[in-house]
Amino acid sequence: MTQVDVHGPIDFVLLEFTGDKLTGRAAEEVLRLADNGTIRLFDVMFVGKSPDGEVYAVDLAAEALAEALGVERLAGARSGLLADDDINAAAEAMMPGTLAVMIVYENAWAIPFIAAARESGGEMVATARIPADEVMAALDALERASEPLQPTS
């Protein structure tokens, strides 16, 4: 079996941005992850939701817009995995007056690990994603529980 036969877990994220805070920094980081082989980008799609709730797709092919957002290198990330119904699903999660980006990516870093597991007869049968805020809350709770009790006066 070659690593070409193996894929890493595929993830989907929806990031919502408010106001005029788009600097291109997030785009730079996702491109850095793709350039160094940590991830493989399949799709990047921007969706807007007007203050009155109207949903619209943002065409990154419009060069001036992509340049203004600092995301011109992301404009070509279109595998076809994301479709119009995904825009509608994203819009349901979005607040009015926001812009969001949907990103589908492969965790390419996992390919050698998965290949080694498959060579040993292992097969990935489930994956799950635990949101970072839930992990941090659980770790904070554990830390508080391990702190010595303070005497009360």
UniProtKB/TrEMBL annotation:
- What top-level branch of life does the organism fall under? Bacteria
InterPro entries (UniProt xref): DUF6325
Pfam families on file: DUF6325 (PF19850)
Name the chain's protein.
DUF1269 domain-containing protein
> Species name for this entry?
Nocardioides iriomotensis
